[in-house]
Amino acid sequence: MVFLVSIFSSNAVPDFVPFSTAHFITVGIMIIFVLSLFWSRMYIRSHRIWRLGIRYGLAFVLLLTQVSLNIWYIAWGVWDVKHTLPLELCSLSLLLSIVMLCTRNRMLYHVLFFAGICGALQAVLTPNLSYGFPHFRFFEFFAAHTAIILAPLYMTWIEQYRPSWKSIGWSMLFLNVLALIVGILNIALGSNYMFLQHKPDTPSLLDLLGPYPYYLLVEEGIALFMFVVMYALFFVIPQMFRRNLKRWDQERQHEFESTGL
Q1: In the structure, what pLDDT confidence band is assigned to residue 260 with cuts at 50, 70 and 90?
Q2: DSSP label at 15?
Q3: CA dist., res. 148 & res. 225, Å (int)
Q4: Could you tell me which of 3, 22, 155, 243 has the fewest CB atoms within 10 Å of its CB?
Q5: Domain ranges, residue 86
Q6: What is the band of 162 on the pLDDT scale with cuts at 50, 70, 90?
Protein backbone atom coordinates (compact mmCIF):
# COMPACT_ATOMS: atom_id res chain seq x y z
CA MET A 1 0.00 0.00 0.00
CA VAL A 2 2.81 2.37 0.91
CA PHE A 3 4.51 1.55 -2.39
CA LEU A 4 1.35 2.32 -4.37
CA VAL A 5 0.95 5.64 -2.56
CA SER A 6 4.56 6.53 -3.32
CA ILE A 7 4.02 5.80 -7.01
CA PHE A 8 1.18 8.32 -7.19
CA SER A 9 2.22 10.80 -4.49
CA SER A 10 3.06 14.35 -5.51
CA ASN A 11 5.53 14.63 -2.61
CA ALA A 12 8.78 12.88 -1.68
CA VAL A 13 9.17 11.22 -5.07
CA PRO A 14 12.37 10.31 -6.92
CA ASP A 15 13.57 13.11 -9.18
CA PHE A 16 13.80 12.49 -12.89
CA VAL A 17 17.43 12.15 -13.97
CA PRO A 18 18.04 12.90 -17.67
CA PHE A 19 20.07 10.28 -19.55
CA SER A 20 19.82 7.86 -16.64
CA THR A 21 19.38 4.12 -17.10
CA ALA A 22 15.60 4.45 -16.79
CA HIS A 23 15.58 7.23 -19.36
CA PHE A 24 17.68 5.25 -21.87
CA ILE A 25 15.57 2.12 -21.41
CA THR A 26 12.37 4.09 -22.00
CA VAL A 27 13.76 5.70 -25.15
CA GLY A 28 14.89 2.24 -26.29
CA ILE A 29 11.38 0.87 -25.80
CA MET A 30 10.00 3.75 -27.88
CA ILE A 31 12.46 2.94 -30.68
CA ILE A 32 11.40 -0.72 -30.57
CA PHE A 33 7.74 0.31 -31.00
CA VAL A 34 8.62 2.56 -33.94
CA LEU A 35 10.74 -0.10 -35.68
CA SER A 36 8.13 -2.80 -35.03
CA LEU A 37 5.46 -0.65 -36.65
CA PHE A 38 7.70 -0.03 -39.66
CA TRP A 39 8.81 -3.64 -40.13
CA SER A 40 5.27 -5.02 -39.82
CA ARG A 41 3.64 -2.31 -41.94
CA MET A 42 2.88 -4.61 -44.90
CA TYR A 43 1.25 -7.24 -42.70
CA ILE A 44 -0.79 -4.69 -40.76
CA ARG A 45 -1.83 -2.93 -43.97
CA SER A 46 -3.22 -6.17 -45.38
CA HIS A 47 -5.23 -7.15 -42.28
CA ARG A 48 -8.17 -4.92 -41.40
CA ILE A 49 -8.45 -6.17 -37.82
CA TRP A 50 -4.84 -5.16 -37.14
CA ARG A 51 -5.34 -1.76 -38.75
CA LEU A 52 -8.39 -1.01 -36.65
CA GLY A 53 -6.84 -2.45 -33.49
CA ILE A 54 -3.69 -0.36 -33.72
CA ARG A 55 -5.42 2.83 -34.86
CA TYR A 56 -8.05 2.80 -32.14
CA GLY A 57 -5.57 1.32 -29.65
CA LEU A 58 -3.30 4.34 -30.09
CA ALA A 59 -6.28 6.66 -29.72
CA PHE A 60 -7.28 4.85 -26.51
CA VAL A 61 -3.76 5.10 -25.06
CA LEU A 62 -3.66 8.82 -25.81
CA LEU A 63 -7.06 9.39 -24.24
CA LEU A 64 -6.19 7.24 -21.22
CA THR A 65 -2.99 9.16 -20.51
CA GLN A 66 -4.78 12.52 -20.69
CA VAL A 67 -7.73 11.43 -18.53
CA SER A 68 -5.55 9.70 -15.94
CA LEU A 69 -3.23 12.72 -15.76
CA ASN A 70 -6.10 15.08 -14.99
CA ILE A 71 -7.52 12.65 -12.42
CA TRP A 72 -4.09 12.61 -10.77
CA TYR A 73 -3.94 16.42 -10.83
CA ILE A 74 -7.29 16.68 -9.06
CA ALA A 75 -6.75 13.76 -6.64
CA TRP A 76 -3.47 15.19 -5.34
CA GLY A 77 -4.63 18.79 -5.35
CA VAL A 78 -2.08 19.99 -7.90
CA TRP A 79 -4.50 21.06 -10.64
CA ASP A 80 -3.77 24.69 -11.42
CA VAL A 81 -5.07 26.80 -14.27
CA LYS A 82 -1.58 28.28 -14.66
CA HIS A 83 0.18 24.96 -15.12
CA THR A 84 -2.12 22.05 -15.94
CA LEU A 85 -4.33 23.13 -18.83
CA PRO A 86 -3.62 21.26 -22.11
CA LEU A 87 -1.95 24.27 -23.70
CA GLU A 88 1.52 22.86 -24.27
CA LEU A 89 2.40 21.80 -27.81
CA CYS A 90 2.48 18.11 -26.91
CA SER A 91 -0.80 18.29 -24.98
CA LEU A 92 -2.54 19.83 -27.97
CA SER A 93 -0.82 17.38 -30.32
CA LEU A 94 -2.14 14.56 -28.14
CA LEU A 95 -5.74 15.75 -28.39
CA LEU A 96 -5.46 16.40 -32.13
CA SER A 97 -3.88 12.96 -32.62
CA ILE A 98 -6.96 11.34 -31.09
CA VAL A 99 -9.17 13.20 -33.55
CA MET A 100 -6.85 12.33 -36.46
CA LEU A 101 -6.82 8.63 -35.61
CA CYS A 102 -10.58 8.41 -35.14
CA THR A 103 -11.49 10.44 -38.24
CA ARG A 104 -8.40 9.87 -40.43
CA ASN A 105 -8.36 13.62 -41.03
CA ARG A 106 -5.70 14.44 -43.64
CA MET A 107 -5.29 18.08 -42.66
CA LEU A 108 -4.46 17.13 -39.09
CA TYR A 109 -2.04 14.53 -40.39
CA HIS A 110 -0.10 17.11 -42.40
CA VAL A 111 0.41 19.19 -39.25
CA LEU A 112 0.98 16.37 -36.76
CA PHE A 113 3.53 14.56 -38.89
CA PHE A 114 5.89 17.49 -38.42
CA ALA A 115 4.79 19.43 -35.32
CA GLY A 116 3.60 16.36 -33.41
CA ILE A 117 6.58 14.10 -34.05
CA CYS A 118 9.23 16.81 -33.62
CA GLY A 119 7.64 18.21 -30.46
CA ALA A 120 7.16 14.80 -28.85
CA LEU A 121 10.61 13.58 -29.85
CA GLN A 122 12.24 16.65 -28.32
CA ALA A 123 10.20 16.08 -25.15
CA VAL A 124 11.27 12.43 -24.94
CA LEU A 125 14.95 13.20 -25.44
CA THR A 126 15.04 16.25 -23.11
CA PRO A 127 12.02 15.85 -20.78
CA ASN A 128 10.71 18.73 -18.71
CA LEU A 129 9.73 16.24 -16.02
CA SER A 130 10.10 16.30 -12.24
CA TYR A 131 9.03 12.73 -11.45
CA GLY A 132 11.41 9.84 -12.00
CA PHE A 133 10.99 6.08 -12.27
CA PRO A 134 8.78 4.39 -11.02
CA HIS A 135 6.33 7.27 -10.48
CA PHE A 136 2.99 7.39 -12.32
CA ARG A 137 3.97 10.63 -14.06
CA PHE A 138 7.09 8.98 -15.47
CA PHE A 139 5.07 6.24 -17.16
CA GLU A 140 2.27 8.59 -18.22
CA PHE A 141 4.71 11.07 -19.75
CA PHE A 142 6.61 8.58 -21.88
CA ALA A 143 3.51 6.58 -22.86
CA ALA A 144 1.76 9.74 -24.06
CA HIS A 145 4.72 11.09 -26.04
CA THR A 146 5.50 7.71 -27.60
CA ALA A 147 1.89 7.42 -28.76
CA ILE A 148 2.01 10.98 -30.18
CA ILE A 149 5.00 9.91 -32.30
CA LEU A 150 3.43 6.61 -33.35
CA ALA A 151 0.10 8.17 -34.42
CA PRO A 152 1.32 10.03 -37.55
CA LEU A 153 3.80 7.23 -38.30
CA TYR A 154 0.86 4.81 -38.34
CA MET A 155 -0.99 7.08 -40.76
CA THR A 156 2.15 7.22 -42.94
CA TRP A 157 3.21 3.58 -42.98
CA ILE A 158 -0.16 1.84 -42.67
CA GLU A 159 -2.77 4.23 -44.10
CA GLN A 160 -0.19 5.46 -46.64
CA TYR A 161 -0.79 9.15 -46.07
CA ARG A 162 1.92 11.46 -47.41
CA PRO A 163 2.75 15.05 -46.49
CA SER A 164 4.10 17.51 -49.04
CA TRP A 165 6.39 20.52 -49.01
CA LYS A 166 3.26 22.59 -48.44
CA SER A 167 2.64 20.59 -45.27
CA ILE A 168 5.75 22.19 -43.78
CA GLY A 169 4.25 25.61 -44.42
CA TRP A 170 0.95 24.57 -42.87
CA SER A 171 2.79 23.22 -39.84
CA MET A 172 4.71 26.46 -39.38
CA LEU A 173 1.47 28.42 -39.71
CA PHE A 174 -0.14 26.13 -37.15
CA LEU A 175 2.69 26.70 -34.67
CA ASN A 176 2.56 30.47 -35.07
CA VAL A 177 -1.22 30.71 -34.74
CA LEU A 178 -1.04 28.39 -31.75
CA ALA A 179 1.70 30.52 -30.17
CA LEU A 180 -0.42 33.65 -30.68
CA ILE A 181 -3.47 32.10 -29.02
CA VAL A 182 -1.50 30.56 -26.16
CA GLY A 183 0.43 33.80 -25.70
CA ILE A 184 -2.82 35.74 -25.25
CA LEU A 185 -4.03 33.12 -22.76
CA ASN A 186 -0.70 33.34 -20.91
CA ILE A 187 -1.19 37.08 -20.44
CA ALA A 188 -4.77 36.56 -19.23
CA LEU A 189 -3.91 33.69 -16.86
CA GLY A 190 -0.44 34.79 -15.74
CA SER A 191 0.91 31.48 -17.03
CA ASN A 192 3.88 30.45 -19.15
CA TYR A 193 2.58 27.71 -21.43
CA MET A 194 4.97 26.76 -24.23
CA PHE A 195 7.54 28.97 -22.42
CA LEU A 196 6.32 31.93 -24.46
CA GLN A 197 6.66 34.41 -21.60
CA HIS A 198 10.05 33.35 -20.27
CA LYS A 199 12.40 30.39 -20.08
CA PRO A 200 11.76 27.59 -17.56
CA ASP A 201 13.15 28.15 -14.08
CA THR A 202 15.25 25.00 -14.33
CA PRO A 203 18.17 24.58 -16.77
CA SER A 204 17.03 23.63 -20.26
CA LEU A 205 18.08 23.64 -23.91
CA LEU A 206 16.45 27.05 -24.24
CA ASP A 207 19.38 28.46 -22.29
CA LEU A 208 21.50 27.86 -25.40
CA LEU A 209 19.19 29.83 -27.69
CA GLY A 210 19.73 33.32 -26.36
CA PRO A 211 17.69 35.67 -24.16
CA TYR A 212 13.96 36.37 -24.34
CA PRO A 213 12.39 36.97 -26.83
CA TYR A 214 15.14 36.00 -29.28
CA TYR A 215 15.06 32.32 -28.30
CA LEU A 216 11.52 32.19 -29.70
CA LEU A 217 12.82 33.22 -33.13
CA VAL A 218 15.64 30.69 -32.89
CA GLU A 219 13.05 28.01 -32.06
CA GLU A 220 11.20 28.94 -35.27
CA GLY A 221 14.35 28.40 -37.30
CA ILE A 222 15.09 25.09 -35.58
CA ALA A 223 11.51 23.89 -36.16
CA LEU A 224 11.68 24.74 -39.87
CA PHE A 225 15.05 23.01 -40.20
CA MET A 226 13.79 19.87 -38.44
CA PHE A 227 10.67 19.75 -40.62
CA VAL A 228 12.76 19.94 -43.80
CA VAL A 229 15.13 17.24 -42.51
CA MET A 230 12.19 15.00 -41.61
CA TYR A 231 10.63 15.39 -45.04
CA ALA A 232 13.96 14.63 -46.71
CA LEU A 233 14.64 11.55 -44.56
CA PHE A 234 11.16 10.06 -44.83
CA PHE A 235 10.27 10.88 -48.43
CA VAL A 236 12.83 12.69 -50.62
CA ILE A 237 15.84 10.44 -50.03
CA PRO A 238 13.88 7.14 -50.21
CA GLN A 239 12.20 8.32 -53.41
CA MET A 240 15.58 9.22 -54.95
CA PHE A 241 16.95 5.83 -53.90
CA ARG A 242 14.02 3.97 -55.47
CA ARG A 243 14.31 6.03 -58.65
CA ASN A 244 18.04 5.35 -58.96
CA LEU A 245 17.51 1.67 -58.21
CA LYS A 246 14.83 1.44 -60.90
CA ARG A 247 17.09 3.20 -63.42
CA TRP A 248 19.95 0.89 -62.51
CA ASP A 249 17.72 -2.15 -63.07
CA GLN A 250 16.60 -0.76 -66.43
CA GLU A 251 20.21 -0.16 -67.50
CA ARG A 252 21.16 -3.69 -66.51
CA GLN A 253 18.18 -5.05 -68.42
CA HIS A 254 19.15 -2.99 -71.47
CA GLU A 255 22.75 -4.26 -71.31
CA PHE A 256 21.47 -7.80 -70.96
CA GLU A 257 19.26 -7.46 -74.02
CA SER A 258 21.96 -5.74 -76.10
CA THR A 259 24.42 -8.56 -75.53
CA GLY A 260 21.83 -11.06 -76.69
CA LEU A 261 22.21 -13.15 -73.53
Answers
A1: low
A2: B
A3: 20
A4: 3
A5: 2-258
A6: very high
